[in-house]
Amino acid sequence: MAAELTISCIKADVGGFVGHSAIHPALKDEAGRQLEIARRRGMVIDFHVTACGDDLGLLMTHRLGIDNHEVHRLAWDVFDICTRVAKELKLYGAGQDLLKDAFSGNVRGMGPGIAEMTIVERPSEPIIVFFADKTSAGAWNLPLFRMFADPFNTAGLVISPAMHDGFRFRVLDVRKGTTITLSTPEEMYDLLVFIGAPGRYVVESVTAKSTGAIGAVSSTQRLALIAGRYVGKDDPVCIVRAQGEFPAVGEVLEPFTMPHIVEGWMRGSHYGPLMPCRVGDAHPGRFDGPPRVIALGFQIAEGQLIGPRDMFDDPSFDEARHLCNVIADHLRRHGPFEPHRLPMEEMEYTTLPEVMKKLADRWQPVNGHAVSGEVVETLPASVAS
Ligand code: F6R
Ligand code: MG
Ligand code: MG
Fold it and tell me: 305: closest CA among 54, 25, 34, 35?
């Protein structure tokens, strides 16, 4: 039996340069130095350090399996050391995503975003790793649906015998902490009931029905739910395997030609289009956005990450980028009005309730009806409870 390989993608915002727009090269350099030490020790087979906006991304391959204590400790230590560098340079929000004081066995629930999969490496193993900034876990719902379940996006669902059976989607209810697995194409409508609400239901992974092999995994951590307050957006990552029983590389990238609207952008409080861009352009500037996504392509060879190829560094995504700017112009003209600003129930996880609280006592009863001054009363019962 072939050796199993684990691909771990762990990211965190440990300091922005300038503001929340990008990261300082010193952080990437430090992360690379630390991971090189781990590689020489034989703990990881290979690694790649990248950045999307103010998030530092660590991609690692190893034989230790998912949720491995040593690998998670390594990532935590790298972020911790990079935080020290960020503090020296007084970078913005140094250590922002490290929500706990000390590592306790697993980085899940501690702030960093994690996407990990264990695979048996195929004779040729193309993967695409997506990193987004200024948006939330759930931003991958629509593109993952398109890649693995929409025949108008993925010709292979119709044409290729290897894909014709369809896929299984595992969906997490981020509020209840429960999961459901739904099978496409037959349960496609059921799947859409949930994943069409990406603030609550997040596609966690996708597996091929023909082989049972994992095809995609995404980070599902919602920072606000971990911290219990607004601490910046989740800025999720996603690993997708391509070709064979999975969508072709071009089918994996195709969903991003339609810049879908995601939550995030300025102060994590606005809807905006997700702009696919090359790594060098992943520094959201306009109104701290619009939200960005980068795609790094690798061929894996005995665990070595051959690459990356910067997949959105391609003129065929120019129209999507242009459309993003047009949509951004239009949405921005709404200023503080919905639907540019998130609806009230989503604003619960921003800094707005603090402002509302100050005004709570100023609300007066109308026609003798008692009106509570509690901010939470302005939210739907399902949210307030
Ligand atoms: C959104 C984001 C930025 C900040 C904004 C205010 O995810 O990171 O839009 O929310 O720049 O930042 P603070 O509150 O740190 O001054
Ligand atoms: Mg930041
Ligand atoms: Mg960020």
Answer: 35
Beta-carbon count within 10 A of 73 CB: 15
Question: Does residue 357 carry a pLDDT above 90?
Answer: yes
Ligand 1 in contact with 282 (CB < 6 A)?
no
Considering the candidates 11, 13, 46, 55, report the single residue annotated as catalytic: 13
Report, in angstroms and rounded to the nearest whole number, the Rg of the chain calculated over CA atoms. Answer: 21
The answer to whether the CB of 20 is under 6 A from ligand 1 is yes
- Cα 202 to ligand 1 centroid, rounded to whole Å: 23
Look up residue 67 and give its amino acid: D
Cβ-based neighbour number of residue 110 at 10 Å: 23
Listed range (27-36, 38-47, 223-232, 333-342) with the worst mean pLDDT: 223-232
Confidence at residue 230, expressed as pLDDT on a 0 to 100 scale:
80
Token output for 318: 């120019």
Give me ligand 1 centre to Cα 2, in Å: 46
- Catalytic site residue 361? no
- Residue closest by Cα to atom 14 of ligand 1: 267
Q: Quick one: tokens of 344?
A: 């009230």
Distance in Å, CA 223 to ligand 2 centroid: 12
Residues in contact with 118: Cβ distance below 8 Å, sequence separation at least 6, in sequence order: 4, 5, 6, 7, 65, 66, 214
Whole-number Å distance between alpha carbons of 143 and 159: 20
Location of structure tokens 């995504």: 317
pLDDT at 323: 98
Take atom 12 of ligand 1 and give the residue whose Cα is closest: 267
Helix H or strand E segment including 119: strand 113-120
